[in-house]
Amino acid sequence: MKIALLAASGRAGLTILQELITRGHEVVAVVRDINKLPMNLPDSVTAIVNDLSDSAKIAKIIAGTDAVVSAYGPPRDDPRFVRDLDYTDVLPETIKRFIAAVEVSKVPRLLMVGGAGSLWFSPGVTVLESGFWPEAFVPIARSHVKAFAALRHSTINWTYFSPPMLIDLGERTGNFRLGGDELIVDSSGKSWVSFEDYAVAVVDELEQPKHERQRFTIGY
């Protein structure tokens, strides 16, 4: 498959990129700063520098691919990330551009690296409303809710992939559980996964679609 990976140099983007390379897929890796990509990428990867601010330019970049993966998120090293909804709301606005680009280019599907805040923590209570969600990450969670809504109201073939409450770099085990709209926790009540296993599930979904026009989630 030929996959367009938008924001390929972040934590999610890099692990998804590596998983795509490992499985032999062709990748169009779109980044703001090419120096943040690994050196000596294989010939199966085409790196393109673009700031993702223009849907028409994005449409030209992704044209002819089999799917688009958005690993986009507002830069976390900006202090506004933890306090300013106006800053994190660049996420839904960017996703709207991706939707428009997919519509124009007629790429078959868009898979988005999503957020956990809108998952059901318990019946009728979302993770964001549960009291267990860190206050510092409320703005980005609210922005993810808006991005998810934009996908649901679009006419494209979308997939929104929510991580658990905790995701970090770790080990590629290949052993995890998938679910729908409810938070997945392990036997000790912990909701977590590695970026590496999250990437495995992303590429699994690209290769064998099971969640088209749906949200799904992951956990151990």
Question: What's this model, at a glance?
Answer:
This protein is of the alpha/beta class and 220 residues long.
Written account of the structure:
This protein is α/β, with parallel strands linked by helices and 220 residues long. 31% of the residues lie in helices and 22% in strands. It contains six helices and twelve strands. The chain has helices spanning 11-22, 55-62, 85-88, 90-105, 138-152, 195-207; strands at residues 2-6, 26-31, 45-49, 67-70, 110-113, 120-122, 125-126, 158-162, 166-168, 177-179, 192-194, 214-219. It has an eight-stranded mixed sheet with strand order 3-2-1-4-5-8-12-10, sandwiched between helices. It has a two-stranded antiparallel sheet with strand order 6-7. The mean pLDDT is 97.
- Beta-strand percentage range: 15-25%
Largest sheet descriptor? 8 strands, mixed
Shape type? globular
Q: Quaternary arrangement of the chains shown?
A: single chain
CA radius of gyration is: 16 Å
Q: Please identify the structural class as seen in this structure.
A: alpha/beta
What's the order of the H and E elements?
EHEEHEHHEEEHEEEEHE
Mean pLDDT: 97
Put simply, the count of helices is 6
Task: Give the total of beta strands.
Answer: 12
Q: Percent range for helical residues?
A: 25-40%
In the sheet with the most strands, the strands line up as 3-2-1-4-5-8-12-10
Contiguous runs where pLDDT drops below 50 for at least 5 residues: none
Q: Separation of termini?
A: 28 Å
